[in-house]
Amino acid sequence: MNLDSGGRGLGSSASRIGQAPEDNRRNIRPLLAVVPYVMRYKGRALAALVALVVASLATLVLPVAVRRMIDFGFTEQYAGLIHQYFSVLILVAAVLAGASALRYYLVTTLGERIVADLRTRVFDHLTGLSASFFDSSKSGELVSRLSADTTQLKSAVGASVSITLRNLMLFMGSTLMMVVTSPRLSLFVLIVIPIIVLPLVAFGRVVRRRSREAQDTLAEASSYAAELIGAIRTLQAFTNERMAKTRFAGAVTRACDAAFASTMARAWLTGIAIFLVFACVVVILWVGAQDVYEQRITAGRLSQFVIYAVFAAGALGELSQVWGEISQAAGAAERLNELLAIEPEIKSPATPVPLPTPARGDVAFEEVRFSYPTRKDATALDDVTFRVRPGEKVAIVGPSGAGKSTVFHLLLRFYDPQAGAVTIDGVRLADADPRDIRSRIALVPQDAAVFAASIAENIRFGRPGASDADVARAAELAAASEFIGRLPQGMQTQIGERGVLLSGGERQRLAIARAILREAPLLLLDEATSSLDAENETLVKTALGRLMEGRTTLVIAHRLATVLSCDRILVMDQGRIVEQGTHDSLVAQGGLYARLARLQFETTPEPVPVV
Ligand SMILES: Nc1ncnc2c1ncn2[C@@H]1O[C@H](COP(=O)(O)OP(=O)(O)OP(=O)(O)O)[C@@H](O)[C@H]1O
């Protein structure tokens, strides 16, 4: 068994993420979820908005200056004014440059901050989700949400939103100025606008759907890669590199094809937008040229109008480009929203019942029936009733798949039973805060998770904040000091990811040190069956013996030695407790335990008690 495991196929919650209703007309509404994050930096956002308005106004002043120059600047009568115009223009340029630089800085840093907050929030949320959620989702996909989707949002908040706002402002300002400059020509523009806008909106939708598909296939490919890289040794040992390569290449090709489709849609969008916009500008120029010819407007005014028209068209063009990006970001926001909306199934009740202090370490299962959420049809525990008194040491034995680890899962409240109750110190776990429960439990899993950090940090995982002296003492009691002393930097030695630099026995002793440091009244021990060498085995046994002292211990026992040293043995088979008693009484019964014990005695003739 593996208490840290996840990923047993895709189930309900996983299919909830990543599959939004395709014809979602709300479009960019998911992006609104970012607003509260922006509001945390009100000052910065406001300053960015001011810079944006100033830059846009400075841009809008330019065409007026151009008209005056054309209409008056070239006549002798106003020759003196030309110097004034140019000086003012330089000033306007300086304001434009300053405001634009400020806007860029403020908006980009705002994006960085928001995405940092969002990443932290998503990670926080993930760590609080229940085991059942992780049973049915792929870790690589979740990591992709955390990195790729948040990055996409960053570019949207950091750049696209600012470009959108700037162009919107420019578009509206230019349109207004166009009307002021020439109502007649503006009327022509009004007629052509729907011709430009409608196809763009329709195409934007296609882009959004395609990019979501691209993102999903990418997540699939990276989840596959993450899984394989995580198990690289197994992969190489079974010489399955070629198969993995082919499968990954397939996933990458699918992701690439999806990206191609999305890019193709965006390319069309850009092309159509540019053509429509410029064709319309040309038509209007055409009409305007006639007007100048017939002296309905001056050349300067036409120039002013044309520049505004170009501004407006350019702004629209840019809007159409970022619209794609904004829609993409909306897709990312939607996925993150879905993830954030998943409620942990195991939660603390509104008013949790506090566990009594001091803790006694009294455990009871009462008529517990349980099936895993991903396998509702198979009963993992069936009418299980037992009690472990404070300080008692109870072994759980039974064939593989009997439900031994499931007992631990329920005690840790990773899941709630469908019927019956699990209690610790007389409090039903469903009524207590899961953190409270877990803080009273020290777990030594069969395959302990070791993190890419120093030895000391790995031990301190048992009780963050423990002093160096406590960590060293825990290592000493776990019989780990000797091997730690031999490492190049002792306690500070960095161990590779998943502790690949340590042997199995060393990893186990680290896990034991961690559990010792936790000082919890209830000890859950999943004894390792891995064949340790004799010396290592003795060391681990001694360490475990010390760990069990004065604690209520439940141990999934694989070694007869452990079983002999326990006060009582529960024998499980197919989710039920089929026998219980001491070693001798169970052997005398001649049932399942007697059979299992005989097998053990035959292979290990001289069992050594643990304590
Ligand atoms: N997370 C899970 N989701 C769905 N089914 C599970 C899950 N974990 C275990 N099971 C199933 O529940 C049953 C009991 O499993 P459990 O891990 O408790 O057995 P075990 O006695 O600890 O076995 P082992 O000694 O091999 O670790 C098995 O049929 C197993 O396939």
From TrEMBL:
Pfam families: ABC_membrane, ABC_tran. SMART domains: AAA (SM00382). Keywords: ATP-binding, Membrane, Nucleotide-binding, Transmembrane, Transmembrane helix. Its main location: membrane. The chain crosses the membrane at residues 45-65, 85-106, 155-179, 185-203, 267-289. It is found in: Cell membrane. SUPFAM superfamilies: ABC transporter transmembrane region, P-loop containing nucleoside triphosphate hydrolases. PANTHER family: ATP-BINDING CASSETTE SUB-FAMILY B MEMBER 10, MITOCHONDRIAL, ATP-DEPENDENT PERMEASE MDL1, MITOCHONDRIAL. This is ABC transporter transmembrane domain-containing protein.
